[in-house]
Specification:
The complex is a heterodimer of chains A (403) and B (122).
Chain A (H helix, E strand, L loop, with lengths): L1 H14 L1 H17 L14 H11 L29 E2 L7 H5 L5 E2 L16 E2 L5 E4 L2 E3 L11 H11 L9 H7 L4 H13 L5 H10 L8 H15 L6 H7 L6 H11 L18 E2 L20 H4 L8 E2 L21 H9 L12 H12 L12 H12 L8
Antiparallel strand pairs in A: 1-2, 3-4, 4-5, 6-7
Helix pairs in contact in A: 2-11, 3-8, 3-9, 5-9, 11-15
Chain B lengths: L1 H55 L3 H13 L2 H14 L4 H12 L5 H9 L4
Classes of the chains: A mainly alpha (403), B mainly alpha (122).
């Protein structure tokens, strides 16, 4: 009889708000423990005038050396600063979405990354493969020891302008210049872009801002303006989780359960930690490859392309999760259309492959990728309900408002 | 004058005759060339990785892997021979680059699949 009474009492306790509070309290404790902070406090102060000039340059197709494409062509407001496509479409691309994919533009074999929070001070590793990063206070990039700035975002803002397929058509002029494969060749191309734009009102405004004659405007000034615009427009905003943490805002039980999975059984927090839910580290997650990949033939070696270290094969930087619900498709090649799929691919990547109908080569390449997966970053199996709950938690990482 | 006209006709015929010849040669060798492009590319990538493995972790095992990768580089010889043969048959560097590009970027068509399968609405 006593056993039955205890059992009934336990059932009541389990269903009671008191018990729900325990879940919420544990979640809040974990969120704090793993580095979550007020995101808005991470935004640096920006110069509004320079940000405004940067905004016009961001949308200016004339910054493309020999084509018509701007930064804004692939960083669209309606896709929360991405393009909504698996791989980006660079030079020759027209329109948005499917129309752009079918327009015959050249494929840039990586998924467009969102820009939120890239300007915050602790954001020191940029791009999927970390081709711009700060190590021991020094900016490491394709500029080698001649980085134009000690600000990684300013350095990163230079790169798309000089990238073949992305904003540059590979014609004979570019080919002759880039055959040298030197930092100087890249700088020359960047300088030519600015030199050709001396009547561009934005470049004139830049000259005015920096109080220099227009012919002295350098790629660095453009990079600074673009970076300032990114810092301003894509600053971090208040997210649902902040409201839950600071104002005790009510969230669904599913979201709380998902949060506990995130910090517990799911082990997501092992890599997605810190204020922006990334450790800025590089890991192998065996996502399927969409498109021909950075290395061709459906291969993308990821971080290895930057470091030449075989231990970096197939590694990519942990993506931040702020606004993750609005920035699909997912993965370095955008091969996964939904967040649910992206979560499942962490622990059950074979689910997305029709191995019998794959080309033998593609099957072997995927096996090679699997062999590089580190057990430390492998998620355990989660059932359908758990994945859904995890998604409910990730919804709390979306901005409450976009303005 | 007659010589001039004959020369012009010969030139034009020569120009046009070259086009079907190129199409036939491309048709005949496209698959084999594409395959060798991949095999050589794979051999070179594997060799480069093997070299970097020694730099990252010098060991007997990695040295042996490099030696194996060096032998595999012989595949590039086959690619090179076919390349020269096709150049001799009249295909240009540009034609060969186009065939290579076709195979390197073969998988770009699956980008549309990602969208169509999941019916992403834009």
């Amino acid at each position: 009889m006593r056993l039955i009474t205890n059992f009934i009492a336990l059932l009541i306790l389990l269903g009671s708000p008191v018990f729900a509070d325990i879940y919420e309290n544990v979640l809040k404790q974990k969120v704090t423990q793993y580095g979550f902070t007020n995101l808005e406090a991470l935004n640096p102060v920006v110069d509004d005038k320079l940000a405004e000039i940067g905004g016009t340059l961001f949308a200016d197709e004339r910054l493309s050396f020999n084509s018509k494409i701007s930064c804004k062509s692939c960083h669209l407001d309606e896709h929360s600063s991405t393009d909504g496509l698996p791989n980006a479409i660079g030079v020759g691309g027209k329109g948005k979405g499917q129309k752009r994919l079918q327009s015959g533009g050249l494929v840039v074999p990586r998924n467009v990354l969102p820009l939120w929070g890239r300007g915050s001070e602790h954001f020191k590793t940029l791009f999927w493969d970390g081709k711009v990063e700060v190590i021991d206070g020094e900016v490491i990039s394709q500029f080698l020891d001649a980085a134009p700035s000690d600000d990684p975002l300013v350095v990163a803002a230079h790169l798309p302008l000089a990238e073949i397929r992305e904003m540059v058509i590979d014609n004979s002029e570019v080919d002759a210049l880039y055959k040298l494969e030197t930092v100087d060749a890249g700088n020359q191309l960047l300088q030519k872009i600015i030199h050709n734009q001396q009547k561009n009102p934005s470049i004139l405004a830049l000259a005015d801002y920096f109080e220099i004659p227009v012919h002295q405007v350098k790629p660095l000034h453009v990079g600074q303006a673009l970076a300032t615009h990114i810092r301003s427009k894509f600053r971090l905003r208040k997210i649902g989780l902040t409201d839950f943490m600071d104002n005790n805002a009510k969230v669904s039980q599913s979201a709380v359960n998902g949060g506990l999975l995130f910090y517990g059984k799911g082990r997501c927090i092992a890599c997605h930690n810190g204020p922006m839910f990334t450790d800025f580290g590089f890991h192998v997650v065996a996502f399927p490859q969409a498109g021909f990949g950075k290395n061709g033939f459906g291969v993308d070696y990821g971080r290895y392309n930057v470091t030449d270290k075989p231990s970096d094969l197939y590694k990519f930087r942990t993506p931040p999760l702020i606004e993750v619900m609005n920035t699909g498709p997912y993965g370095h090649s955008g091969s996964l259309a939904t967040v649910e799929e992206a979560i499942s691919a962490h622990f059950d990547p074979l689910r997305f492959l029709d191995t019998k109908n794959m080309k033998p080569l593609d099957r072997v390449l995927f096996l090679q990728k699997l062999q590089n997966v580190n057990s430390d970053t492998m998620m355990p199996y989660l059932d359908e309900l758990e994945v859904k709950e995890l998604v409910e938690f990730l919804k709390l990482l979306s901005f409450l408002e976009n303005g | 004058m007659r010589v001039f006209i004959v020369a012009i006709i010969a030139f034009v015929l020569g120009m046009f005759a070259n086009i079907p010849a190129k199409i036939i040669i491309r048709h005949l060798y496209d698959t084999e060339y594409g395959r060798l492009v991949y095999i050589c590319d794979d051999a070179m990538r594997s060799h480069y990785i093997a070299k970097n493995k020694i730099l990252e972790t010098p060991s007997e095992a990695n040295l042996s892997e490099l030696e194996i990768a060096e032998v595999a580089l012989l595949d590039c010889q086959k690619y090179d021979v076919l390349r020269k043969k096709l150049l001799a048959y009249g295909l240009s560097e540009h034609d060969l680059s186009l065939i290579s590009l076709k195979y390197i970027e073969e998988k770009s068509s699956d980008l549309m699949d990602v969208i169509e399968i999941h019916e992403i609405n834009y």
